[in-house]
Amino acid sequence: MHRRYFPSCTVDGPIDPPTPFGHLGASGAVPNKCGTCDKLFEGECTRYIEEIGHYLHLDYGSCGINGPTDPITYEDDFITSKVEIPRKCADCVFLGIDRIHGFHCKKDSDKWGDFHRGLDWGRWKPDCIYLQLPLPKVTTQALAQFAQRNDMKSFIKEYRRINPGLSIKEAKADFAHFRNVLENR
């Protein structure tokens, strides 16, 4: 789940007052700093989109509820998740789950409307940002982890396993690209 939140937003600015926002019949608001940001697109953020291959949640700031934010797998009587959420969210009354948005926060829903706040990861950060190679190349979590550890040999081995027929030269170029992104985030 944290793939939708990291790399974190580096734009400083106020969250309040919310900026009214609508898209394809959805209505509500987005954080003030996002309302004028050139990375706002359809209610999500395009920061690092070339590197990670998907949109990210907007930065709604802290939810104001204290607790640990290390990732855990959510489980209750009916659901065992495939993704991790912040520990403090697991028992929170504001935790929402649906087919479209997955896990999300319902706190301040009257303020944000259809553009609900994301989960609050606090100061926790993942060990590795999961980067994406351009299609039709295949990317695995292991590739990002090897790049994070600066392990070119393992990166090339995994790269060639999942992308048969691509050259070692191309693998090295993609490794260098991943390293550049990780060092400059």
Characterise this structure.
With 185 residues, the chain is an alpha+beta fold. The protein is 25% helix and 18% strand. A hairpin with a 3-residue loop joins strand 7 and strand 8 (102-105). The protein is globular. The protein starts with 18 loop residues before the first strand and ends with a helix.
- Low-pLDDT parts are none
Order of neighbouring strands in the sheet with most strands: 1-2
Order of helices and strands: EEHEEHEEEEHHHH
The N- to C-terminal Cα distance equals 19 Å
> Largest sheet at a glance?
2 strands, antiparallel
- Helical residue percent? 25-40%
Overall, the morphology is globular
Number of helices: 6
**Subunit arrangement of the protein:** single chain
The overall average pLDDT, rounded, is: 90
Question: What radius of gyration results from the CA coordinates?
Answer: 18 Å
Structural class: alpha+beta
> What is the number of E strands?
8
- State which percent range the strand residues make up: 15-25%
List the helices and strands and how they pair.
Blueprint: E1 19-23, E2 26-30, H1 32-35, E3 40-41, E4 44-45, H2 49-52, E5 71-75, E6 80-86, E7 95-98, E8 102-105, H3 109-112, H4 141-148, H5 152-162, H6 168-183
Antiparallel strand pairs: 1-2, 3-4, 5-6, 7-8
Helix pairs in contact: 4-5, 5-6
Give a short synopsis of this structure.
The protein is α+β, with helices and mostly antiparallel strands.
List its traits:
single chain, 185 residues, alpha+beta, two-stranded antiparallel sheet, two-stranded antiparallel ribbon, 6 helices, 18% strand, globular
